[in-house]
Amino acid sequence: MHAVARQPDDTAENAPARAEDLRLVEQFRAGDRRAFGELVRRWQRPLYGLLWRIVRNEADARDLVQATFLRAWTGAEGWRGESSFRTWVYRIGVNLALNHKRDRGRWLSAAVAPDELPTEATGLRRLVEAETSQRMGQAVETLPARQKLVVELRVYEGLSFREVAEVVGSSEDAAKANFHHAIKRLRDVLTEGGEA
Amino acid sequence: MTRVTELHPDTGRCEDVAELLAVWADEGLDGEQDRRVTAHVRACPACAAQVEADRKLLNGLREAAPVVPEQDERFWDDLATSLEAQAAVVVPMARRPSRRAPVFAGLAVAAAAVLALFALRAPIEPSMPRPQPAAQPVMVADAGATRAEDPPVQVAQPTEDPTELIEELGVEEIDPLEAIDELGDDELEALSRVLGEGA
Predict the structure, then answer these.
(1) B21 and chain A: CB distance < 8 Å anywhere?
(2) What span, in angstroms and rounded, lies between the C-alpha atoms of B114 and B81?
(3) Range of the domain at B179
(4) Is B106 domain-assigned?
């Protein structure tokens, strides 16, 4: 298990990717369908990861990726380039995923399932790591929905706070405030549970 | 944890930066906010300790991030290919090339007017039942007009905005001109006859 790489807040480093997205969207708007296929190939993997983390089901995540891109396809005229194409698609996907979870009525726990825990004597260190991961995941699940989404987008997906705000549909300051309250709450929950 | 202190007059009080510490710990600040928190943390051991604890927590969260199941290349190729096939069917209306000569424009406008007339006169039957607003108890100020247990009277609005209705029903708005554009020659001839009879 390795840490999720966090992207720097300096959006200048993301400028080439954004410029390429913009070029492809313009090509698509001019009638080039292949440009949309290229956009799909550029973003389907990170989008799948984001949506899987929300729904925790591979088939559902795959279906949601399809639904997201189709929604983007039919609504590409609505993207004005004010946000990045990535955050625009992420926002569509997050809304679809949250609706999907609401409709299914299943808020799956992020905790490690019992059958995913080590069943053999794999060493104290791995057991401690598994327990820590489980408790971290459970703590994240206790967060209010918006705070949880902000933490997932920032910590797991590596988005800048500006990008988090674009996906969540809030101001950047509001995204930072949600992050602050989420971290404070996680600290309290984990401290109560014995995590320093 | 918010601390009020006067120990750092040059860098602000702890409570002034408390809500920014976790963001700063995650390298999420820039500009004046970053300079302000940096100066304060350097001068305040308590806030520095808070930042260190937040960093430890954030590292732990990243280490414990749910691992997305890995998929092979075929999965991604199939997904992209499937999307391209579906997108070829679900062509955005704005992108559909016009295949008709301008001579059809007048016919299309007339047909759009007829369709709009039918749409306004025919009863609308949404596939899903439209949500009815729950009866709201009347506020004290209104108690003289209606009893609290009486549901509000639903008054039909004769000039209901079709655009809002389309949005409420989740139905994609259709451009009549584009819809006409999609008709076959036989359908256009039939429509011409209908319009001619109606004139």
Answers:
(1) yes
(2) 40
(3) 96-127+157-199
(4) yes
